[in-house]
Amino acid sequence: MPSRLPSRRHVLLGLALKSVAIAALLGIALPASVRAEAPVTVFAAASLTNAFQDIGKLYKAKTGTEVAFSFAASSALAKQLEAGAPAGIFASADNKWMDYAESKDLTLKATRVTPIGNSLVLIMPADKARDVTINASFDWLGFLGADGRIVTGLTDSVPVGIYAKTALTALGAWDKVKERVVGAESVRAALALVERGEAAAGIVYSTDAAVAKNVKIVATFPANSHPPVEYPFEIVKGQDNPATRAFFDFLVGPDAKAVYASYGFVVK
């Protein structure tokens, strides 16, 4: 049976694919109509995981556009940006690490917005939880027992740990409990230790506790014991393009704010 001659469409398609391959080998930039656009990558604080994932799904449903996320402690993400890791947007869990990114000329200060906040809470495994009141006279050692540990983020770098140390210091408790404090690489890592019953208590954000299955909030830290928990967002330097700007605007728009509110963030 004679073979079929390739159609003009198949010939043209083959030539186009060959051109793309040759251009890639030679390092030639292809026009936007030929090259595939990579999704916008967002570096975001671990405590934003659930909310940002929902917002990403909502954005895709509305626009058909995928967004990629990398979640970790804000400190780790800022250092990754400094090392040259590619991202379009940085969403930090505190002002310190956004200030750091700005000081290293990694982000665009003019784009900075702070659309949401959070609260700092004390949690326990649900089956051992008992409500307490945190103030300057609270007996932390009595609360923890003979060998109980309290887990939070690393107190010298991870935002939740920095907030925790600041609050405990303001309450006059840091020197008493610092030997009992265990630092984790992120707020979600700290949360997991309490969920598994590997720590007597933890200091996390209220929104993290709300999505955990086996923990209970037993107290909220006084607002005046630490700086406000705020989440600044900025576009990464060199990435202020239409695709990045479109998702950045969506992150601070009404649809995203409704998602934040549903997870218990303070919407500004």
Automatic annotation (TrEMBL):
What InterPro entries does the annotation carry?
ModA, ModA/WtpA, TAT_signal
- Enumerate the Pfam families for this protein: SBP_bac_11
Alphabetical UniProt keywords: Metal-binding, Signal
Q: Which Gene3D superfamilies match?
A: Periplasmic binding protein-like II (3.40.190.10)
- Signal peptide location: none
Q: Which family does it belong to?
A: Belongs to the bacterial solute-binding protein ModA family.
Q: Which NCBIfam families match?
A: modA, PRK10677.1
Its name, as the record gives it, is: Molybdate transport system substrate-binding protein
Taxonomic lineage is: Bacteria, Pseudomonadati, Pseudomonadota, Alphaproteobacteria, Hyphomicrobiales
